[in-house]
DNA sequence: TAGATTGTTAATCGATTAACAATC
DNA sequence: TAGATTGTTAATCGATTAACAATC
């Protein structure tokens, strides 16, 4: 693998993984770039280019071995390892995430949940304890957790992020509607539902005129 | 407004809206491109370029009027109108979306919820009736709904999308892990939690080595 | 006026796409 | 072998960034 994979390519790799995995599940042994492109509505040339950044190669006249590619990407994306995470802000969204079955398949494990509501603290959700936010840094550090999920209101998110990072988190999944300030080694994926909704809204708005 | 606003710019407009809105709420009357850039970690030149696509302009030596820009973007993004939506697949995620307060502020209203579980059908969630999926096309049409939200498993998503579109939906918010095939006039926003998680996962994986 | 900040033009950068040699 | 499909080189396209004239 060359080191400089373009970010747009990196963002598409999970998509390819999904298709290869599905093909394997359906007993399809090989898939060429044209077939894959048809499924994902992308030019085949983009797929070949993207996959050429990887160590694993296709075979001329045949295409890509679905099982090989699926397991290579699984490894590349780190999906087969157990990954420990904590979540801060136990609301409806948190409940949905914790019970999302796809995540368990990808090795995501919740080690602790944090909240500042005394009524929630001490209880459990899906077998995971709810703990006061004051303990974030300490507990993250003790558990060696690398992934933090923020589902708090916007006002609390930056402070929460700071504490997660202080505890050793290097990847943050941010559901709060705010742009977080983080050091360079920390990777943030923003999941901004309100902003995505604004895009939908704009499309409907445009269509009215 | 020129017609050809680049897609990356369109995707950033909701971000600008959010900052202008927050500034207004904090009593800040003007903001220049450098300040805005600092808040969003973007070059000021990108912000000026993006905003130059809009009809509303900034003022030299002053910057942008926050109230003007917020309300212009609110209008442009269609956030002030009531927008009717239906949702298909009443699980945990659906519950989280329906109770997400941000959406109500943006004018999102749920008119109907669809599911195929007999235990759910007939009951209500947040005051909205749960109806059999067989009635999607008919009900969407009767209610003139333009936005459909899909929170079903992957297997059902394409069929659901087809029915939503048949009923008149032109904007789909897809939470199912599948690439939907839709006609050109239909706009799809994919919210792929598993794929975004894979990005986080990859970052943690990389850091291990 | 001098200085600051815009909007825009031009330069750069990077990603996508087309074309094709390699090869199984 | 002939044909199909890859991986890669080169061309194109589009977005970002730098530079700066306009102007308040």
What does this structure look like?
2 copies of one chain form a homodimer. Chain A has 2 domains: 7-76, Winged helix-like DNA-binding domain superfamily/Winged helix DNA-binding domain (Arc Repressor Mutant, subunit A); 83-195, NAD(P)-binding Rossmann-like Domain (Rossmann fold). In chain A, helix 1 (7-25) crosses helix 4 (66-76), helix 2 (33-40) packs across helix 3 (44-51) and helix 7 crosses helix 8 (154-167). Helices cover 46% and strands 18% of the residues of chain A. Chain A has helices spanning 7-25, 33-40, 44-51, 66-76, 92-98, 101-105, 136-143, 154-167, 193-208, and strands spanning 30-31, 64-65, 83-88, 108-115, 124-125, 128-132, 147-150, 171-174, 187-190. The first copy, chain A, has 9 helices and 9 strands. At the A-B interface, helix 1, helix 5 and helix 9 of A face helix 1, helix 5 and helix 9 of B. Chain A binds a DNA duplex (24 and 24 nucleotides) through residues 6, 8-9, 32-34, 43-46, 48-49, 51-52, 57-64.
